[in-house]
Design brief:
The protein contains eight helices and five strands. The chain has about 190 residues and is of the alpha/beta class. Strands 2-3-1-4-5 form a five-stranded parallel β-sheet, with helices on both faces. The chain binds shikimate-3-phosphate (S3P). Shikimate-3-phosphate binds next to loops.
């Protein structure tokens, strides 16, 4: 599949940790009835342990390999099934790190980058300890550094950028659906 062909009608959510991908993903799933693939959950189920434990036991690269594997499998389904089920795909915040992944994401569907203000990200990510990359002495500095590194990569992978500030999940889902309809223009 190349960029000139219309992508399959999946909606792919990307964005930093705490940007609201899972919540908006659930909202889109409810509104559209498309199945919801939460990549972090798929990986945890397969590995039989939480992401923090995967990082601790096998390292970040092994986790990144698992992310690429899930994307490759989703792509394979799209390629082999004429009427592959439509999906909402919610990704982990670091999935855009690999060039291969960025390409796969765009081939999988309409890629929406959710971005939240730094204060919101810090507040949300500060509330739980599930995210191994933030298990450092200075999580704020870590978030800032990762954001600076990743912003251009989210921008490269995304078809649409959405500023989530001040909007609830319902409002965000509505906006995303409108743009997705336009993007797929007439094919839905
Ligand atoms: C990560 C984000 C996490 C999870 C893992 C690594 C990252 O997902 O995939 O902890 O590199 O930003 P969320 O974005 O859903 O928190």
């Amino acid at each position: 599949m190349n960029e000139s062909q219309p992508p399959p009608k999946n909606i792919v959510l990307i964005g930093f940790m705490g940007s609201g991908k899972s919540t908006v993903g659930r909202e889109l799933h409810q509104r559209l009835g498309y199945s919801l693939v939460d990549m972090d959950q798929v990986i945890e189920r397969r590995a039989g342990k939480p992401i923090a434990a995967i990082f601790a036991a096998e390292g970040e690269e092994a986790f990144r390999d698992m992310e690429t594997e899930v994307l490759e499998e989703l792509m394979l389904e799209v390629l082999k099934e004429v009427d592959a089920p439509r999906r909402i795909i919610s990704t982990g915040g670091g999935v855009i790190g690999r060039e291969r992944n960025r390409k796969l994401l765009r081939q999988l569907g309409y890629v929406v980058w959710l971005h939240a203000p730094l204060a919101v990200i810090l507040d949300r990510t500060g509330r739980n300890r599930d995210r191994p990359l933030l298990h450092t002495e200075d999580p704020v500095a870590r978030v800032e550094a990762l954001l600076a590194l990743r912003k251009p990569l989210y921008a490269e992978a995304a078809h649409l950028q959405v500023d989530t500030a001040g909007l609830d999940a319902g409002e965000l889902a509505m906006g995303i659906l409108e743009s997705a309809r336009y993007f797929f223009s007439g094919h839905w």
